[in-house]
Amino acid sequence: MLFSTKAEYGVRLMVELGRRAGGSDPSLAQPAALGAIAGAENLPLSYLEHLVARLREAGLVTSVRGACGGYRLSRPVDQIDMLEVVQALEGPIAPMECFTPDAEGRVLCSHTSDGDHACSTKFLWTRVQGGVTRALSQTTLGELVAFGEQDEPESGSVPALAG
C-alpha cells in the first residue's frame, strides 16, 4: 500500500508546525507562514496551500490573518494522531479499490460474494486495513516531533508500537 505525496508532505507540514508550537497551548504559538515551512522542508508552496486547506477543514490547524499571520496547530501535538492527519489528506484507508470502510468502521467490499461463498480475500484486506489504521492511530504528532529532535537517531531505528 502506498500513500501519496499528500500524506507525506502533509505529515511533514504538521511536524514542522509541531516543532514551532512549543508548549501545551498551541494558541500561544507564533503562526508559521507556509512559505517558511515550504523553504524549511523543501516542499512546493502551492501544494502546501492545497494540503493546509484540507487540514484546516479537518480542524487540525487554524489560520491567522495579517502581516504576521500563518498557520498553527489547533490542539497540542500529543492530542493529534496520525490517523486523523492521513485521513484528512487521503480519505479513508483502503488497501484495495473494492474495499471501503463505512461510517461505523465496518468493511464494505464490492465483491461481497464469489458465487456461493463470501469473498475469500476480505479477511486479509480487513486485517491489513486494521493494522494500518491501528499504527496511525497509535502514533501522535508529538512522537514524530520528538523523534525528529533526537540528536543522532540510529540509522533505521524506529520505536516499536505496542501491540
Which key terms come to mind for this protein?
single chain, 163 residues, alpha+beta, Arc Repressor Mutant, subunit A, two-stranded antiparallel ribbon, 6 strands
Layout of strands and helices, then pairs:
Elements: H1 5-21, H2 34-41, H3 45-57, E1 61-64, E2 70-73, H4 82-90, E3 99-101, E4 107-109, E5 113-114, E6 117-118, H5 122-137, H6 141-148
Helix pairs in contact: 1-2, 1-3, 1-4, 1-6, 4-5
3D structure, described in words:
By secondary structure, the chain is of the alpha+beta class. It has 6 helices and 6 strands; from the N terminus they run αααββαββββαα. The strands form 3 sheets. It has a two-stranded antiparallel sheet with strand order 1-2. Strands 3-4 form a two-stranded antiparallel sheet. It has a two-stranded antiparallel sheet with strand order 5-6. Strand 3 (99-101) and strand 4 form a beta hairpin. The relative contact order is 0.15. The mean pLDDT is 84.
